[in-house]
Design a protein that fits this description.
Length: about 100
């Protein structure tokens, strides 16, 4: 396998689990609970869709008593979802490889 392709695959897997792996303990059940968001815990694109993101944050903010945990979750969701948006360019990218 080409090194660049392997690097992209590894980066994709790491990004996919970012919400799940970095959520405060009190919010992990909200990320994992597919009945809450309708998304797989590793599907950041789905979790960052506006409706699912709102439901996820609502669940997490209700599950976390500590203000630092609530703030950390909001920051994490904002950072991960901003990366998801940047990873889908508006114009198709054509590789002339």
């Amino acid at each position: 396998m080409r090194p660049l392709l392997l690097l992209l695959l590894v980066a994709g897997v790491a990004a996919q689990s970012q919400l799940l792996n970095n959520a405060p303990d009190c919010a992990v059940k909200c990320v994992r609970n597919t009945s809450v968001t309708g998304c797989a815990a590793t599907d950041n694109a789905c979790l960052c869709a506006s409706t699912a993101q709102g439901v996820l944050l609502q669940c997490a903010l209700g599950a976390c008593d500590d203000e630092d945990d609530r703030n950390d979750m909001q920051t994490l969701v904002g950072r991960v979802c901003a990366a998801v948006v940047r990873s889908f360019p508006e114009e198709p990218v054509v590789c002339r490889c």
